[in-house]
Write a sequence for this structure.
């Protein structure tokens, strides 16, 4: 799962981008990362725990000649390595005139 | 309706004890072809009377639990067994994946179980050849079918108390018999999370090997229940009946994730942010705060 936060100017140029990922890493007894169900003996848990709310916060500065910025926050769910679905998104345009 | 223990069947299974695979505890000899295996436990038979449930199940991932995981199982056979463990392909090894991905393989003969393993390799490695497509077609018959949940795994969480599943009997929430086709045994076990956790968690093979295909039940138990959650898997996953939707279903995923985002602006004092063009000007700035809530019964994502 990925939270993607971007800021773009009125022309669509990207001014800021950050991705926060939640995932699991499987490791074997030598602590090497593995994918095979028979190889994995432990996991490193970097996921979002149940009944918990996590807060991600960003302070973003733009250049002094910036008039308008569109902020997008998108939450994607990866059903496997390559296929992702947009689960939620929120956006807001800020003007600095 | 029948109660749990039945002397007739117990007698029967003890007679056949020597020849039958222990987990099965059933009277019939092991199947030697996929068709023989499937013929006995075919979900299509159930579809004649349980039409709606059959349709839902057909659209579920349970119905394609082998072919949707082909690459991983192929790697276990070709890389894990062959190269890393230097171990021959046997029924016991194949069951380290298929006891969950296709529980009826428990009723296959040693030779058939190996054949199924070889079919998996062929289907994955040569998908476009005639033998490959034929293998895929055969393997599509193997899955988590009606019989897997309503018989093979039905008493699996409490075999001491419930006894082994009896052949041809359906275990369900009401105990209502299925016309002339099957008797039923009422079991509340199917409504418990422990029932689902037989397959949705770390697996301990009879020889002690641990298989970590998915680890969700650990998180359910030690994350969700420990934090005060009390719903069962079935309570959250039955919105579309026997489809048991999860991560592949956007509606379910949406319900499981709260998303609250606050976006605010201000102008930062001039002179403090050094990278800007004009150090004398106020700096346009934004604060983005996102709260992501896990409303599922386990970690997100899993595996």
């Amino acid at each position: 799962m990925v939270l993607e936060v971007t800021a773009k100017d009125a022309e669509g140029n990207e001014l800021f981008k950050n991705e926060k990922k939640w995932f699991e890493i499987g490791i074997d007894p030598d602590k090497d990362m593995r994918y095979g169900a028979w190889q994995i003996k432990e996991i490193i848990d970097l996921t979002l725990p149940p009944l918990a709310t996590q807060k991600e916060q960003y302070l973003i500065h733009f250049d002094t000649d910036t008039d308008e910025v569109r902020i997008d926050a998108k939450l994607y769910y990866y059903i496997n390595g390559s296929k992702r679905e947009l689960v939620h998104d929120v956006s807001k345009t800020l003007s600095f005139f | 309706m029948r109660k749990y223990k039945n002397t007739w069947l117990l007698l029967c299974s003890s007679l056949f004890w020597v020849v039958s695979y222990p987990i099965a505890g059933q009277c019939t000899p092991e199947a030697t072809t996929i068709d023989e295996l499937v013929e006995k436990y075919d979900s299509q038979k159930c579809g004649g009377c349980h039409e709606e449930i059959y349709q839902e199940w057909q659209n579920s991932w349970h119905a394609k639990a082998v072919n949707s995981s082909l690459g991983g199982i192929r790697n276990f056979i070709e890389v894990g067994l062959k190269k890393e463990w230097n171990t021959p392909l046997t029924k016991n090894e194949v069951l380290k994946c298929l006891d969950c991905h296709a529980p009826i393989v428990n009723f296959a003969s040693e030779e058939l179980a190996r054949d199924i393993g070889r079919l998996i390799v062929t289907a994955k490695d040569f998908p476009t050849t005639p033998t490959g497509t034929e293998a895929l077609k055969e393997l599509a018959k193997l899955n988590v079918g009606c019989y897997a949940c309503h018989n093979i795994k039905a008493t699996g969480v409490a075999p001491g108390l419930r006894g082994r599943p009896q052949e041809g009997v359906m275990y369900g929430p009401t105990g209502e018999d299925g016309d002339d086709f099957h008797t039923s045994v009422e079991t509340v076990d199917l409504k418990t999370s422990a029932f689902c956790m037989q397959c949705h968690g770390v697996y301990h093979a009879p020889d002690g090997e641990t298989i970590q295909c998915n680890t969700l039940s650990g998180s359910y138990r030690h994350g969700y229940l420990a934090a005060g959650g009390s719903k069962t898997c079935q309570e959250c996953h039955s919105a579309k009946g026997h489809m048991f939707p999860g991560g592949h279903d956007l509606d379910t995923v949406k319900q499981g994730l709260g998303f609250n985002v606050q976006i605010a602006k201000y102008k930062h004092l001039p002179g403090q942010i050094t990278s800007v063009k004009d150090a004398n000007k106020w700096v346009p700035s934004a604060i983005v705060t996102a709260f992501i809530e896990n409303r599922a019964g386990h970690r997100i994502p899993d595996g």
Notes: Residues 2-214 of chain B form one domain. The first strand of chain B starts at residue 170 and ends at 172. Chain B has two domains: 2-214, 252-294. DSSP finds 14 helices and six strands in chain B.
